[in-house]
């Protein structure tokens, strides 16, 4: 058991190392930090630019492998290097991770709970009006890309703010209003106002996915013999469905929940970018625009780690919930 | 058995046309409402994208310097952009690109998934270990980031490369499913029977494994079309996909969302067509799944 | 006595398909009613309808009365209160019938708590009591286990414990032993009997196995195409059947207690699909007594004797089929009637059967006169698997000794039956032979070639001469290929021309219509599919045919036809069969020699009649004694040698003799000094007769099928 865990972790380390290295090399070749200095007025002298780039380990005149060695050496010590502006990548990403975490937690919990409820009910009433309606709606939601959905939400919210409320109820940009002095409750309200739209944008898609998934799992269980046994014992249909059916059907969905969390950590790109939350996903796009090689590599590494550990957590959770897997 | 009897039998064998599976699936597909709607809408979208430009005097490169940012009218059916481009013409052009990119990427990625998955699953051991490792690596790499970094390479006219790269990041999950199914198929008695009969492995994959996964693969290819279109749109939205002067749904939506508040026609037409297209593709995929497997109704 | 459960004219339909068409039955306190029928006869649907557990969309008509109280249309609340309390059910597949994520103790306790106001503690105590009652060792400990940690037999005991938790008045058992091995089946049937004694409940036993019914039921109801076709006391049904279908079922059974090799008499054709019933009597198309009047209307159940009813307009002419010469046989039940001769004996051996009988006469070899040429030789074959645990963290926890030194040989023209329960290693042995790879230990010689020294071309050549037929014909035929392509595949694989004529020839050979070559496997019935699989195996004119449970997936009435076909093909084409099966009756019928496997070793091997009539190994003895015989009188007088517990894990076999932990002889007959050898020394197969050997230190031949005791 321990040996197997060790072997699996080792294979993860190899995968992460290869993935991050590939990302670094690709970014170092394709991105051009030098061009950042080209637009500055007054134009800095080439010597100064070179010195600055070298200090950041971004100088394209240094051989690629040498830059890679410096970067890899830093990573092994836990230092992801400097951003193009000279700040520490570690500090920047740590702060952003907190932002992303606050954003996705609510959306994921909200979306998955709603999805599970909708899916389970749709399965029990298969081919009923609720099943059809939920199927239709989730199809529709899944056909709307996040970029469109987020923009639509913003348009709707600003229309509602102007025409329905007459005041700014939904705040469409950022995590909180800077410099607001309104006490604890005021701050909380402000944060909530900022949170509503991105949470809706995140959880709508998740609800659609989770409801389809849960519906399938539930349908599998609905035909299962053990549900018939539970009813033959004298349990009412409702009780058999909840205690025996839902409990069993939830296992794969909970597993999927863990996995989604890992993916979203760097995957809430569009929601973050469009709603102006300064999280990891937003930085992913910004770093490419600003030719920030070190940040790109660090986020790649983070994403790889997140995905792998989400997969591991999903497996562990599965084992915890299902005695058949545990054995 | 007499000779005439044998001849008769052979005659009979030749005469009875095998009941075509294709026909059965087609019949079941069109028997479902969502299959019919999905197919009709998708056909309409293709018609619109490729035949539509013939009906408008404006080409997507034309600029009407008399009409900047005008709402829909008789001359400009969908209105015009800030640059004076005709929204209708530009939208159709973007749709063409998005549809072609989606179709090709889905085809390439499904083919890749089928081959890698079937070989990994059938030849366990080192073949499996290597192929699975590569699959895992691509899963772990942030696809969006890699595609974005490589976007400068997809300059004008290089959209085929973009399609290939898109496909490269779409096949892994399907491949894992194919691998798992191949492993269980390998235990199936008809594959074992073929093995013990002396049929070579590659032939078993070609004649038994892949045909028996065909329904999965076809459905997957369909759903990959919408996945590819959505990914393309998202990438292009940030300027990492299709590069100007070419346009696609993504670039148009990016531009449109900025002006949507005061010029809704620049956003809603494109967004609406995109949603309808993806919806139609998904409907077709879902109906196909049901048509292939009548037992698993309304799955997923 | 007033019946506890009374079903009158029950009908169930799903859409247009009428699955149950007028079933009436009643069962009294302490009585066992056997409901017999093939798959699709509507017997399980009847059970579900009585329990009120039909899937939504089913339409039910008629009446179901429990203690005189109508259940159909009763409010769900009342039904819920009755289910599990007054009427309970035991299902077929005990693995899927238990919720995988709860402990078995909790699941039983739940059944108690649903109906009684008892605390958690008390219910848990009751659950342990019940587990003890159904014979689960260390019940206190095992109550905390999950269903997947139990063996099939143990799970079925849990199901029974759950069913009797509230002292029900009626227990409905839906194929309770079908998924189990014979020795476990005997144990579970004992538990059911005990449960009935404890609760005094009426039992409705639904099964397709006439043997189980003969030993267990008081009355029998035979179902066909959704309807009862004959009902009566168990003796009436078995000795005085008046419905040709019942007669046919009995005649098509291979029997463990019949040494004389009579060909089986299959029922022609297939059971009708419930959606497309023939007009008139649904059995008419398959019935040898069919006359025009049969097609005019469905016959009602005629009163044919005291308490016996049969649905046949010619019931007066129907006589039980008597094998061969035994017309006035020892039971004296063959009525010497007016209708002697062909007319009165509907199941006179048909063309196929007669052929098979002659073939058998030629093909069978007496002990000591075995053919000389060896086609397959297995010496000390060993195969071990790593035992892996955990789906998430797969890790090796031990070694499964699946095959631990097995030796046998198969001569040209011979049939060797390889029998054993699940986990005995018979399938592993077969796969090792089929793989044509060097075995882990020991030696496999196929057609004179050692598999350890085969090049690619050699193994291709051997594959041509050795073909295989698998258990499930639907699984062994690629559903995407036409029958023509399936049969032609081996020809193509070996570069031979695959002409339509050759395929037609092969299909004719196995008794199929060659014009069906363009169809797909799903268009055929189970028996026909198995014929296609046999045709494919014969395409290359092999010398050795490996048959892996070729008839166990088929319905009783169809099985006989395939067995006869195999017997006649063997005689006509001079084939050798390695016949792997768990059904000892089938093996007795078809094999010349038999090898009994237990836990990866051969327990007994020898000429088939010698082994069956006087088995020498205690395992063979208990195995044979566990098999129910479709003969109620004989079943009543038989004493079973019951094995205790399950097959030990092949990952941790006992020291010395691998059977000693279950051995009745070891347990009750041997002295402590004698036991010493069993514990320390692993027995070799030693001869105990002309062509009979047993791996037991204290082998002793005795007859266990027919009461009569020790032979020698």
UniProtKB/TrEMBL annotation, chain A:
Q: Which SUPFAM superfamilies match?
A: MetI-like
* InterPro entries linked: MetI-like, MetI-like_sf
In the record, which residues are listed under signal peptide?
none
Record keyword Transmembrane present: yes
Membrane topology term reads: Multi-pass membrane protein
Family affiliation? Belongs to the binding-protein-dependent transport system permease family.
Record protein name field: Peptide/nickel transport system permease protein
Q: From which source organism is this entry?
A: Nonomuraea pusilla
TrEMBL record, chain B:
InterPro entries noted in UniProt: BP-dependent_transpt_permease, MetI-like, MetI-like_sf, OppC_N
Instruction: Identify the keywords attached in UniProt to this record, alphabetized.
Output: Cell inner membrane, Cell membrane, Membrane, Peptide transport, Protein transport, Transmembrane, Transmembrane helix, Transport
Name one cellular component (GO) term: plasma membrane
Give the transmembrane ranges. Answer: 37-55, 99-123, 130-150, 156-178, 265-285
- Residues in a coiled coil are none
Gene3D superfamilies attached here? MetI-like
Localisation per UniProt entry? Cell inner membrane; Cell membrane
Q: Name one GO biological process term.
A: protein transport
Q: How does it sit in the membrane?
A: Multi-pass membrane protein
Stretches assigned to the ABC transmembrane type-1 domain: 95-285
Q: Can you tell me which family this protein belongs to?
A: Belongs to the binding-protein-dependent transport system permease family. OppBC subfamily.
Q: This protein is called what?
A: Oligopeptide transport system permease protein OppC
UniProtKB/TrEMBL annotation, chain C:
Basic and acidic residues compositional bias, start-end: 352-366
Keyword GTP-binding annotated: no
**Which BP terms in the Gene Ontology apply to this protein?**
peptide transport; transmembrane transport
- Residue ranges of every copy of the ABC transporter domain listed in the record: 5-250, 376-624
Question: Which region ranges are annotated with the description Disordered?
Answer: 342-366
**Keyword hit for ATP-binding:** yes
Top-level taxon? Bacteria
One Pfam family from the record:
ABC_tran
Q: Which UniProt keywords apply?
A: ATP-binding, Nucleotide-binding, Transport
Q: Name one GO molecular function term.
A: ATP binding
PANTHER family documented for this protein: D,D-DIPEPTIDE TRANSPORT ATP-BINDING PROTEIN DDPF-RELATED (PTHR43776:SF7), TRANSPORT ATP-BINDING PROTEIN (PTHR43776)
Hey, which family's this protein in? Belongs to the ABC transporter superfamily.
Q: What is this protein called?
A: Peptide/nickel transport system ATP-binding protein
